[in-house]
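Lab meeting prep.
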Amino acid sequence: MFTPLTVAVAVAALALAAWCGLAAYRNEPTKDWHFAGMAVVTLLALAQLVVGVVRLAGGAEADDGTVVFVSYLVGCACAIPAVAFLSLSERTRWGSATVAAGAVVLAVLQVRLYDIWGSGGA
């Protein structure tokens, strides 16, 4: 796996979590600029999906199995769009809180993705 991209996704997800967490603290729903931030994090996760699949197609292998690795890649790519959709249906502070929680989950998934790939694939 490409470690700098994994770190970038995790840091961007934590920044999004802090930003939306602040909005929830201020009793604000998600706004358009939050969705722009979600788009950036989603694009990073999609880039990670592409890089991971290309690495697998090139002959590299994940330590814990290809199916588990690809499942985590797809889950990472779908995490932020899923909470974005939920925040659209909940136009209160809880929509912002949902995005913050989903972004934290994405950051944790990055750690797990790194573990699944293994230390030999950096």
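Slide two material, second protein:
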Amino acid sequence: MRAGAFLYPWDVVGDPGAAARVADLGVQQVTLASAYHSTRALTPRHPRHRIVTAEHAAVLYPVDEARWSGQSLRPYAAGDWAPTADPYGEAAGALAAAGLDVHSWVVLAHNSRLGAERPDTSVVNACGDRYPWAPCIAQPAVHAYLTGLAAEAAVRPGTRGTELESCGWYGLAHLHAHDKTAGVELGDAAQYLMSLCFCPDCRTGYGEQGLDATALREAVRRALGPVWAAGSADAGWPAVEKLLGAEVAAATLAWRTRAARTLQEAAVAAVRAAAPPGFQVLLHADPSAYHCGANAGVGPRHILGVADGVVVPCAGGPRLLAPFAEHRRPGGATVVAANFGIVAGMGASPATLARDAARAAALGATELRLYHAGLASDDDLGLVRSALRGL
């Protein structure tokens, strides 16, 4: 089974042994960040540093100024945490020289700096709170920015494919500095209600689905009232229907699905227009269309008719793979990649990777993704090496 590992450019640039060390794991591919959100990352083997703090969302290559001239929204350049002017390009070159296929890792609708500087671009919940980390993908300016970013960040020199993360709605759930939002339990039904956007474009969109946006906002507030009192672990779309009513819930999802599919189709088309023949385009995806986040909620049949495949989160087990495997195209061209964590300190289980990979394959996975070779300890990487040699 083909396997790939995630990396940041700063894991490689400045470390002469990094590329060979990754190749020695037994992976065939590296998914290398080219556009990424803010983060604080450990680099346990780098000869020059141990912590990299990326203060804001940025691209990790030189921006094409001509592409963005006159645009109201544009990518942010990396700060002094970027080791060179083109860290992606330098890392990609070193990895390719070690015999690895390099695919870009592009984070789209997740950008806290954009939300801070342009709050009008952010998702606005039913209570009027803005989510600066979550650009509203229904807004035309945001849509144009994200599709342009997808094309530029994906199709870098020496890159054979891309994986688009956050290519859909982002919502309430967000790993934030000193996060204090877990005081009331919110199941995914309440998460959905807290992620519904009420910016002007979304209010218009709800109207196109036969809803009065003001009445909908009040209905969402009423539905969440009991949740604030006692919490709720209710999950699944029937729980959303219970909170909002089936017809209203369906209308909200219809609007959000239309906006998400429009972005996904446009982003993939923009990448393909900029890419050479044979360039692979995958999306990080969840098979529940109403889910938000890095793994965008999608319809499996639809997305596999748009992209070359998906990368599916398997931290809670491989159960999310089956809906995608069911809709693979004939001929074996569709990629269904099972994404497993390999960092024990972040709750993953690299010791069981061989068993987990076998279960994933039985449910239809065609490839593996390993998160994250740059963050993992030497012991974690040793377990990965042993597991991949046994597959």
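Talking points for slide two:
The CA atoms of residues 124 and 198 lie 5 Å apart.
The chain has a mean pLDDT of 96.
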